[in-house]
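User: Here's a chain of 141 residues. Predict its fold as tokens.
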Amino acid sequence: MKTYLAKKETVQPKWYLIDAEGKVLGRLAVKAANILRGRHKPTYTPHVDTGDFVVVINASKVVLTGKKEETNEYMSFSGYVGGEKYRKVADVRQQKPEFIVTQAVKGMLPKNRLAAKMLTKLRVFSGATHDHAAQNPVALK
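Assistant: Prediction complete.
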């Protein structure tokens, strides 16, 4: 029996829709990352991007358990001396709630160039509307 290895040309990507309202951030990110990688398909191949597109709506209503809303921080570095900035999750949620979901999914993807291409297939929207109705995304629970 031969092992099947998927090729980039044969992959037929689908679109999935995830409603983040009331969902725990980590569990949502795992589901999105697995779909982006293609782990849900029998043709999954680690070195080929066999994943699908994911649209996440209501990112501003995602839930963090415990005291993570007040204690967790996002660090950014400008590249200059003393250029570190720390922002609490609550502040980021007010300014750009899509960032929270994107960073959580990014952390669950492999750390390589292929993951950067996978992350471009993630579309996050803070509200209930999205721009991808023409792709007929399949709603996930």
